[in-house]
UniProtKB/TrEMBL annotation:
The family this protein is said to belong to: Belongs to the cation transport ATPase (P-type) (TC 3.A.3) family. Type IB subfamily.
Residues of the whole record sequence present: 417 to 712 of 762
Highest taxon in the source lineage: Bacteria
Locations listed in the record: Cell membrane
Name of the protein in its database record: P-type Cu(+) transporter
């Protein structure tokens, strides 16, 4: 690639809010075979809303939200913001929680004072967290799922006492952005730490089939999934907002960061999409292909 062609290509990208940090990324984007999207904050808005609170017999909605909010107060996860907002709307003041701890890919845990003052273990998170805290699965009354929605379970003293469901809207440009990549002949995948129902639901809304969904991936394992794809011969682009996926961005052949993402993602991504527009991934690939054509 001639330096001039690269300069012209990067300049054209910058005009469209596609920030290409190095010439190699511009050259490489043209020969990608596979684009892997993170879900939360990348394909979705990243601001989930609580849509339903289901309580076990003997547990009130306000009490459940107060305890969940007490646990989430210490978390920076987008789901935490949804729960805090729902509690506030309900007028439920967050309960004081001791020994707060975030368990990546699971949820949050801590302790509250029981009736006799002794500590009772509490937690809020997914089915994996329920298994950890109760030693068994989600109880029958709390089973079921809604397409695209994330279910979180509130555990108190080894028992599930409530299920809180939250939904996160796909970005308005997501479906079009996925279709544009497929039109360019690329395989499009979704990689998420969320449960299968949530991940497949969002995938179907944006036009990604269930075969191309990898769900329930622990934060530390996202990079391994990308490495596995590379080992199978794919030339992989990872698109993320960086909350949990910075290592995967770094492992991919090309890492693309959403402009509204975390500072870490903006740093590690070789390409930054300033407009947070999913369609810009395809535009970057087209720009690369056009640049390479001019070079040859
Ligand atoms: P994602 O890939 O969607 O960013 P994460 O790895 O951050 O997912 O989290 C995976 C799953 O772990 C979430 O979908 C949720 O079920 C659970 N989880 C993680 N953090 C929290 C939290 N603070 N509150 C409730 N659930 C959580
Ligand atoms: Mg994310």
């Amino acid at each position: 690639a001639t330096p001039t062609a690269i300069m012209v290509g990067t300049g054209r990208g910058a005009e469209e809010g596609i920030l290409i940090k190095d010439g190699q990324a511009l050259e490489g984007a043209g020969s990608l075979t596979c684009v892997v999207f993170d879900k939360t904050g990348t394909l979705t808005e990243g601001s989930p809303q609580v849509t339903e609170v289901l309580c076990a017999d003997g547990t009130g909605r306000g009490d459940a939200l107060a305890l969940a909010a007490g646990l989430e107060r210490g978390s920076e996860h987008p789901l935490a913001r949804a729960v805090l907002a729902a509690a506030e709307e309900e007028g439920a003041a967050p309960v004081a929680v001791d020994g707060f701890e975030a368990v990546p890919g699971h949820g949050v845990v801590g302790a509250v004072a029981g009736p006799d003052g002794s500590p009772v273990e509490v937690g809020f998170g997914n089915g994996r967290l329920v298994a950890r805290l109760t030693g068994s699965g989600v109880p029958a009354w709390a089973e079921g799922s809604a397409p695209g929605a994330t279910d979180m379970y509130l555990v108190r003293g080894g028992t599930v006492v409530a299920r809180v469901r939250a939904a996160d809207e796909p970005k308005p440009t997501a479906a079009e952005g996925v279709a544009a990549l497929e039109a360019l002949g690329l395989r499009v995948m979704l990689l998420s730490g969320d449960g299968r129902a949530a991940a497949e639901g969002v995938a179907s809304l944006v036009g990604i089939g269930p075969d191309n969904v990898v769900a329930e991936v622990l934060p530390g394992d996202k990079a391994e999934v990308v490495e596995g794809l590379r080992a199978s011969g794919e030339k992989v682009c990872m698109v993320g907002d960086g909350i949990n996926d910075t290592p995967a961005l770094a492992t991919a052949d090309i890492g693309i960061a959403m402009g509204a993402g975390s500072d870490a993602a903006l740093e590690v991504g070789q390409v930054v999409l300033m407009h947070d527009d999913v369609r810009d991934v395809a535009r970057a690939v087209s720009l690369s292909r056009a640049t390479m054509r001019k070079i040859r």
